[in-house]
Task: inverse folding
């Protein structure tokens, strides 16, 4: 019998990572969550105030929703992906009563996933105050049922899907923050977990590098096509993902920022490209494409803000997202904890209450890249075990969603008549 | 890049790493084919620069103040020639760039981004939108 092919260098590096296990929540689809949150989903901006009020003073309850009255397949898919995320135990969908998107269809879809879910229209419950009171009653009932349903099981590295996003990048991001996350991604993949990175709009000029990382000819084809679509789109909308703060931090062009951003993808083969709300078909490293596809309305900016990209990663099933920010940022995320990593020691000191991990120690020589990656993995395991990340502790649970068009043949719109 | 050696190269002492103005500032060259390096501390005008990375070089003087995280050219880059970092072309020189010069928005433009060239060199603030 031939010996199995073993990447000895990868095994050695992986062995530096502590053997951690923790307890998580087993969901009916077999996925495991690291939190047992409730989710309130509003189906139009007009219902958002009531939704936020229902969740007020409910520490386990997060809010997501869609502002538009006219519905959008992309948005519905994303809300359903989040409502059936492994970190979510139960869902309340709240509508005004006029809009296209239907709360009861969201609740039905969530119940089909084995979770408790309810829905109602504000117009049928007597306005703001009575709807908030009704929603809070529903929430209490959902919480009780979610707790009854919850099955605690052991979890390990192979049960984790981690996302990586960068924002507020500076000259340190490509030298320290992103490479340390890339190294941690390598370790996670070697240990049997799943890693997802995105921001295709920050891969300008890197087509050959991307394609060279493909795990298969099919993946190479997907990566090339994803790059070509992205470049056409950026040229058409004349928007590149580089901002004044990046310039002030020493980055000069989108090409320079791109090479730094790509470093967060580590060095392992890229298994393929997934679209928003799709989940990786198997473990390993994946690229998420959030760029709009060609459509008669051409709507949707490529990369409106960091929160959108983070929610895309969570919708793909990430239980935790690593957010690399050289300049510093004060966002968190709904549904899954955000861990903030900076390669800039000054930022770590200036914003210490918000920054979880100081990767700048690699630039000052205090840590090697491998030591930093091992320490970051340890922090990931702590947060997976229930320790609050700094954004969680501060109460952050940002969410953003807007109209977009993507062709995703593998998924059908879940609540359109 | 193990600590002792790196510490020595970067010129760090005590527990105040990278941010302090060193008499000799270090700049990190990522790839052997690069013509710019990233400052690991702030360099004053006239300060000697230590290029660390694949092709160490200590015969460079900062021609102007260059901030932490910003780039310095360590070879002459003719007008129209590629500016290279990470081994990839990150932009095109808008005018001749001398060794020791700060490389940023005033002398390096993107090959794609049409707004490149319209940003304040210090703040990055866009100047091509009317607020009226």
Result:
């Amino acid at each position: 019998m031939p010996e199995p092919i073993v990447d000895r260098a990868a095994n050695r590096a992986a062995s530096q990572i502590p053997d951690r296990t923790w307890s998580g929540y087993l969901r009916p689809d077999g996925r495991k969550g690291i939190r047992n949150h409730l989710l309130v989903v509003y189906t139009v901006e007009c219902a958002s105030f009531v939704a936020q009020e229902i969740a007020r003073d409910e520490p386990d309850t997060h809010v997501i929703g869609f502002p538009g009255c006219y519905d959008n397949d992309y948005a519905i898919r994303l809300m359903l992906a989040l409502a059936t995320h492994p970190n979510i135990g139960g869902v309340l969908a709240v509508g005004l009563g006029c809009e296209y998107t239907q709360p009861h269809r969201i609740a039905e879809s969530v119940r089909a996933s084995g979770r408790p879910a309810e829905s109602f229209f504000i117009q049928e419950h007597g306005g703001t105050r009575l709807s908030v009171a009704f929603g809070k009653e529903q929430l209490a009932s959902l919480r009780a049922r979610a707790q009854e349903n919850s099955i605690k099981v052991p979890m390990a590295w192979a049960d984790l899907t981690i996302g990586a996003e960068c924002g507020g990048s500076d000259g340190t991001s490509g030298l320290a923050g992103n490479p340390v996350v890339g190294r941690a991604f390598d370790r996670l993949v070697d240990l049997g977990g799943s890693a997802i990175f995105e921001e295709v709009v920050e891969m300008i000029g890197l087509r050959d590098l991307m394609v060279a990382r493909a795990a298969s000819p099919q993946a190479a084809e997907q990566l090339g096509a994803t790059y070509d679509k992205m470049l056409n789109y950026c040229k058409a909308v004349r928007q590149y993902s580089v901002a004044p703060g990046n310039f002030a931090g020493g980055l000069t062009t989108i090409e320079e920022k791109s090479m730094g951003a790509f470093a967060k993808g580590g060095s392992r083969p890229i298994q393929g490209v997934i679209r928003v709300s799709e989940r990786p078909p198997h473990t390993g490293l994946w690229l998420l494409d959030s760029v709009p596809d060609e459509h008669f309305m051409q709507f949707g900016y490529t990369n409106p803000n960091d929160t959108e990209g983070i929610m895309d990663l969570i919708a793909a099933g990430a239980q935790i997202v690593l957010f690399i920010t050289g300049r510093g940022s004060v966002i968190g995320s709904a549904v899954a904890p955000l861990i903030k990593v900076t390669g800039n020691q000054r930022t770590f000191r200036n914003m210490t209450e918000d920054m979880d991990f100081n990767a700048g120690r690699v630039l000052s020589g205090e840590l090697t890249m491998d030591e930093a990656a091992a320490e970051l993995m340890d922090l990931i395991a702590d947060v997976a075990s229930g320790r609050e990340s700094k954004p969680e502790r501060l109460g952050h649970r940002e969410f953003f969603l807007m109209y977009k068009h993507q062709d995703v043949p593998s998924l059908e719109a879940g609540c359109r008549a | 890049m193990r600590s002792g050696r790196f510490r020595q190269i970067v010129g760090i002492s005590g527990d105040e790493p990278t941010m302090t103005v060193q008499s000799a500032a270090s700049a990190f060259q990522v790839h052997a084919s690069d013509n710019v390096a990233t400052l690991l501390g702030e360099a004053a005008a006239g300060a000697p620069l230590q290029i660390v990375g694949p092709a160490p070089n200590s015969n460079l003087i900062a021609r102007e103040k260059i901030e932490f995280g910003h780039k310095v050219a360590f070879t002459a880059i003719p007008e129209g020639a590629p500016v290279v970092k990470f081994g990839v072309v990150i932009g095109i020189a808008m005018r001749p760039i001398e060794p020791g010069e700060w490389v940023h928005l005033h002398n390096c433009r993107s090959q794609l981004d049409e707004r490149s060239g319209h940003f304040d060199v210090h703040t990055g603030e866009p100047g091509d939108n009317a607020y009226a």
